[in-house]
């Protein structure tokens, strides 16, 4: 597997593969790779001739009091893991390479319809930072397909909308959330948890599933369902930011809807966890 840090080298390598008519799948990440990320790369392997992944902890998507400084950076381990699942190229640029003129006054991409609700309400500017860096990466890699995890449901939704609105010729593939045996969604941030918090963490998925079961049983009193979910999380020492039932397009659900997604974000100590459960009735 090639590891490339600069844009000219990346473009030269990709041009060669494209000239040979090869199909490229792309897996953007912030590194510290776990089984969830590697599943995205494996699925990319099945659908393309070349798999390109990126590791870039994007400063533009972190708020001033968030964990940009302490986000785990484990490039050597990430290289080995990607090579093992058959990735062809790892692009690991510096912030200077991605934002050579700095982040002030930068041209940005904003999917305004979905960026200020749910996680976006609590992380102002976050999704503009994500949409901007993903469009920069898409412009550099020009993949045929790009793979994203359903764990970051709102992010996946925003990227699909961005690609549609901007007519980017890229298939966006969503991949189901990889979980620990006790249900906790894999996340690089799980390693911030103390042992005691780690024991409590699966309550988030259990709570979302309980709400899903109630919807399946016919309950449609959405505010009461969410309130009970929030209380269950609080009883497990979470500090919930939100727990909401939405339609798959993140609009308010209707009583006669057949599809729902239940999403939550909550702090456990200093660690912010997110998860979601989709259901069709
Ligand atoms: N458990 C998972 N299962 C499947 N895909 C995942 C999982 N966790 C993350 N991904 C996907 O991997 C890609 C890169 O995500 P990212 O590097 O932010 O990983 P992360 O572990 O979710 O980190 P964070 O703690 O920052 O949320 C995203 O498309 C994300 O949705
Ligand atoms: C898509 C992404 C790599 C953009 O920085 C990031 O938000 C992530 O890892 O989910
Ligand atoms: N997985 C989303 C990246 C972030 O939380 O910044």
Give an overview of the whole structure:
It is built from ten helices and nine strands. The chain is 38% helix and 20% strand. The protein has 281 residues and is α/β, with parallel strands linked by helices. The longest helix is centred in the middle third of the chain and has 16 residues, at 126-141. The strands form two sheets. Strands 1-4-3-2-5-6 form a six-stranded parallel beta sheet, sandwiched between helices. A three-stranded antiparallel beta sheet has the order 7-8-9, with helices on one face. It has helices at residues 7-19, 35-47, 75-84, 95-98, 119-122, 126-141, 153-165, 195-200, 203-216, 222-235; strands at residues 2-4, 24-29, 50-55, 89-91, 145-149, 171-175, 238-246, 259-268, 271-280. The model has no long low-confidence stretch (mean pLDDT 98). The relative contact order is 0.13. The protein is globular and about 55 Å long. It folds into two domains: 2-175, 3-Layer(aba) Sandwich (Rossmann fold); 188-273, 2-Layer Sandwich (Pantoate--beta-alanine Ligase, Chain: A,domain 2), CATH 3.30.1300.10. The structure holds adenosine-5'-triphosphate, pantoate (PAF) and beta-alanine. Beta-alanine (BAL) is lined by residues 30, 61, 152, 155.
